[in-house]
């Protein structure tokens, strides 16, 4: 685990820097525009390019050195952030600049994420894959815990310009372990078939990667589950900042984000130290149901305490869900196919995020918020239960999303190929 831990530490440093920037820019965009739709558009630009280019990126990950794919991806993302820093320093930053930079970072992420995931399978012994996946979630939890608190302090000292400059430095620090360590190459089960694939066109390789997934209904079912769940969670991601800022301050928002980071940190520590349970799929579905219940609770009242509790519980289960699913994929997919598989997985699951961004913002601004205004159509019925006024339409959306997430978990358990995926598919490593 030492080699993996060294690489992981560099990625965590980079994650913290990115978290600082995302927190600062998120507040800057919403406070300067007051538009949920525009806020959602920027999130869309940060995910859509990755979704579109992922199949091609996966082929390159399997064809090329996964280490160099990660190095070049980190370098490109650092340059995108550097562009934002430059515009901030000359006081020329506008929302469309952030859209362009987010799109560029998303493109580089399409290469970096499957390369890191596939490389982990080669760097870590099979029996420690669950702990490695937990450490990846732990790094995200550390970032979510530290970044809002640190960002809230630094924004008053060095302003947004200084925060983005720190992010640029952390991007390049994250590449140092990658420059110092060589990655092992995947051992192929059918070398002649793999070599033949490399001589095919990109389109044929992409098609073969998709055929590999569809031939395994349990994996396909897990992909569809994540795509649907990501749509729901993407909607929550768009709406949580406007919901909280509708009745309290950005400082409280930072506190809530930090508490969610504590939940993610605890969940990550559980999975990284204890490993996964015997039935991984049970943890995936069980904690997804807990997340749905928490989201439902968050929409009931304009209560900081209630939303904070819901955020903690949601993010407590999030790293456990992701780590358990990740181990399932790593064990069941052949190493020489993992670049393509994880890229297609990223495309399928991440496409639901842009869709949620497109839908959630306009629904909040044009449908749910008017319905829950003091004179809205639902003010005399649902409004008597959850309240009326700014943010209550978003609260109703949270309740709806929570109910859908619970129903999704129950329906997924009823599908035998998904419920029995651990027994029906043999391990490939």
TrEMBL record:
Superkingdom field: Bacteria
Chief localization: membrane
Record has Transport as a keyword: yes
Membrane topology: Multi-pass membrane protein
Assigned keywords, A-Z: Cell membrane, Membrane, Transmembrane, Transmembrane helix, Transport
Subcellular location per the Swiss-Prot or TrEMBL entry: Cell membrane
Entries under SUPFAM superfamilies matching the protein: MFS general substrate transporter
Organism: Nostoc paludosum FACHB-159
One Pfam family, short name: MFS_1
Protein name as it appears in the record: MFS transporter
Keyword Endoplasmic reticulum carried by entry: no
Record-annotated membrane-spanning stretches: 12-30, 36-61, 68-89, 95-124, 136-157, 163-181, 219-245, 251-271, 280-300, 306-329, 394-415
